[in-house]
Amino acid sequence: MEKKFKRTLVTTALPYANGPVHIGHLAGVYVPADIYARYLRLKGEEVLMIGGSDEHGVPITIKARKEGVTPQDIVDRYHTIIKDSFAEFGISFDIYSRTSSKIHYETASDFFRKLYDKGEFIEKVSQQYYDEEAQQFLADRYITGTCPHCRNERAYGDQCEACGTSLNATDLIDPKSAISGSKPVLRDTKHWYLPLDKWEPYLRQWILEEHKEWRPNVYGQCKSWIDMGLQPRAVSRDLDWGVPVPVEGADGKVLYVWFDAPIGYISNTKELLPESWEKWWKDPETKMIHFIGKDNIVFHCIVFPAMLKAEGSYNLPENVPANEFLNLEGDKISTSRNWAVWLHEYLRDFPGKQDVLRYVLTANAPETKDNDFTWRDFQARNNNELVAILGNFINRSVVLTYKYFDGKVPAAGELTDYDRETLAEFANVKATVENLLDNYRFRDAQKEAMNLARIGNKYLADTEPWKLAKTDMERVATILNLALQISANLAIAFEPFLPFSAAKLRTMLGMNEFCWEQLGRTDLLAEGTQLATAELLFEKIEDATIEAQLQKLEDTKKANQLAEHKANPIRENIEFDDFMKLDIRVGKVLECTKVPKADKLLQFRIDDGLGGRTIVSGIAKHYAPEDLVGKNVCFIANLAPRKLRGIESQGMILSAEDADGRLVVITPADEVKPGSEVK
Description:
Layout: E1 7-12, H1 23-42, E2 46-53, H2 58-67, H3 71-89, E3 95-98, H4 102-117, E4 122-131, E5 136-137, E6 143-146, E7 155-156, E8 173-177, E9 185-194, H5 200-209, H6 216-228, E10 233-234, E11 236-238, E12 253-255, H7 257-272, H8 278-281, E13 286-291, H9 297-311, E14 326-328, E15 331-332, H10 343-349, H11 354-363, E16 371-373, H12 375-405, H13 417-425, H14 429-438, H15 442-463, H16 465-468, H17 473-493, H18 499-509, H19 543-567, H20 576-580, E17 584-594, E18 602-607, E19 613-617, H21 625-628, E20 632-636, E21 642-644, E22 647-649, E23 652-653, E24 655-657, E25 663-665
Parallel strand pairs: 1-2, 1-13, 2-3, 14-16
Antiparallel strand pairs: 4-5, 4-9, 6-7, 6-8, 9-10, 11-12, 14-15, 17-18, 17-20, 18-19, 20-23, 21-22, 24-25
Helix pairs in contact: 2-3, 4-7, 5-6, 6-9, 11-12, 12-15, 12-17, 14-15, 15-17, 17-18
């Protein structure tokens, strides 16, 4: 039996404040969260929607250093851009705050201290690189050197982006500090770890047994992590930007951003409701829903619940309806390559068209798999659906009412069989849309709302009241009454999806009061209600407008190609004999599995035509293991064996890397026998 709750707490992933928000963020997190929160409010339920900027971490310090400003300058700039864009776009946060606030520092410190005092952390001393010139420990991304696997001289301390191999900073040959350029030295440093393995039995039961209703992508990723075995995870790091670790002897250490960021949900709630915040976090009659993208599943389903469980007094999430990724024009959205549609730029380029983007992103929502945004589809959905179906029906209904009844809702006469058939078509609209929204199927719910407009359009087209006006005004009155009642239903059904357009429509129809319970009724507009003048809800988007956006992306692509060429110039020439030393062959992937305790490594069993071999490759961030089984791949067969995470790798699989670090495995175009040489 489904549990009933008194109220719902909606949280949205905290966008990282080192850049603006793009359509991928909107489609993955903020539009579905806003739809859900607006729906609950429309039902009269008690709901709170919490958001804020994530303002700590190494990428912010790197950006600040590059620009010659402070990290606070960076987060102040982007927090303002993000917050203002969300507000203009209609994302209805009850509060949108930030993790650099005083109340967050206090809340995160108190949370850490409680776990520390309860003995929930493990203290460990490890060796970490230290820059004696800059007098600070170095995060992995502040260390560069030569990759021991492929000899790339620009590898980072956590990964070589040339061959994709996951690294420890100590693996690098000739490491250098990215801050001073000097050679760092190893020094002992102490950190605190959250023992996720302690909570593994609980998480296995709570997720895998008690929450089988979670989306398959969420459930599957959680199962994969748990089945591999959870390990202690550091909750502190050596950095000068963040929430200081609140224990003696922790000078120069801050809370790791993954630990402090989700506590931002709590601190933002406290900031909004200092006297009553606990009922939203600790009352078991509050349902908590996390809206996130798939890259945050492990933090919201495993790590944050373990933190809350360790603290002991907080609720755990009831559901985490994470979305997959949205691509742009067939390519992965990338902040670093500027391959994105930025929200603040969209609002400037398409003033007053917030609902158009909301509609298209929901229609293409990546709920079960990655999806693609294209400007041509954006134009088509606006012109063929919002304008031609929804807008056209509303406009005709209001204009005809003004033409024949001075803009007043006419009285309905006796209904025909066709009228009753039409009414029957949307009698179940409330139950259908409600069921879809309750199960976080926002794309299908919006489609059902649009079907209501299709019903209305067909009804007017079939009954042709403009022709009947010559002979039967009583029949015209009935038709337009029914059309206006459908219009009023649309004003309610689209409120969660298209709030700006729904508000305009309600003004046109004179709807001063409305609620979800009214959806499906045919008496929403009383006889004699004065309509406002007809106003177009949507307007056609011309080809020239779309061409301008496509040209902007084409210019970005050319700039990226130029930058990539400069960043990755052709290396110095080698002799032909040097090339001939490489033995590159084709092999068929027989088995492919994730390497335990290594986020980026996959272990391959390759049919090389010579009895088989094992190869370890750092491409787990780019491929699911099952996607590679059965494929032919190219690999270097005579590379000296090397151990990675205790596994001897007998070669290297060849991949191509784009400017964003995305790796694509090189495969022959046609089927060839395993062991065939590449020449």
